[in-house]
Amino acid sequence: MKNKPIIIINGEPNSIFLEIFFKSLKYKKYKSPIILISSLKLLKLQMKKLKFRMDIRLINYKSINNYKLNNNYINLIDIEYNPRQAFEKISNKSNLYIKKSFDKALKLIKLGTSSKLINGPISKKNFLNKKYLGITEYLAKKTNSKKNAMLIYNKKLSVCPVTTHLPLKMVAKKITKKKLYEKIQLINNFYKKYRNFKPKIAVLGLNPHCESINKFNEDEKILKPAIKHLTKLKYKVSGPYPADTIFLKNNRKKFDVIVGMYHDQVLTPLKTIYEYDAINITLGLPFIRISPDHGPNIKMLGKNISNPLSLVNAITFMDKN
Asked: What H or E segment, with its residue span, contains residue 203?
C-alpha cells in the first residue's frame, strides 16, 4: 500500500473518543486509510446516540493485506465488548478489552501492516493499576524500548517532561543527568527526522527561580553540568531557566521545545496557550505513537460538544509522515 494505514485504538470505551473520531472523519479527507480497533456493538450504539452515519466494514487482521482499504467506510477490527448502553461508568470492566486492542495493534505493526498508532484516552487508575506511570511506559515495556519520552507537540512550541505521571514528592529523586541526556537526544532525533532541523531546547529548573534552601540544589548539581555536557555534543540546549517566566511570549518564541522536570510544570502552560492544538507523541518506540491531548472527559459523555482538533492534528501528522 502506497500510504500505509493509520491504526487507531478506541481506548477507554466510555469516553468522548468515538465522538471526536466521528467528527474527525467529517472534518477533512485523509490520504492514508484508517483502521479502527474497537467494539462493533459499542460503535453502533454510539453512532446511534450521536447521530453519526457511515458504513462499517469488518476487517480480519490476519488477511489485512487482501483488502483495498479506503476511508469511504469505517474499517473496523472488532474487539469483543458488551456495553449495556452507549455510555457507562469507567470501571475495570473494560481492562481486558483495552489490553486486547493494544495487543491486536502491536500484532499489526509487527506484521509490517503499519508503523502508525493512535490511541484514545485510557483511565490510568483502572487499566494501568499502578503498574505503569502511563501508556508511554506501558508501550515501552511491551516493545522492550529502553528509552522513551513524552513530547506534547505543536509546530510553534512543544514541551517534554523529564518525569511523567509522578507525585510531586517523588520527582526530585528521579531527576538524573542520564534521563535528561535521553530526553534531549530523542527530541533532537525527532525534529531532525520530521522537521529537518535541530531544535532549540530550553531546560527548566526544578526549584522556584532555580534556587533551593536545601544544601543540595538539583539545578546546580545535576542540570547545569548535564546541559554543559550536551552543548559540547552540539545540541542546541540551554538553561536551566526559571519555570515562572519561560512561557512569557518573548521568552518562549526563542525555543522550539521546553523541557520541564515534571508533568504539570510544562503541560499546564502549553494547554493554556494552545488548548486542543497539540498532540502527545511517544518518542523512542519502534513505531510512531500519538494520542490526542485529552482524557476520557466523563462529564461530556454523550453531549456531542467535544472539540476534535487534537485528534484531527494527530491523524493529519500521521497522514503526512
From this structure: strand 201-204
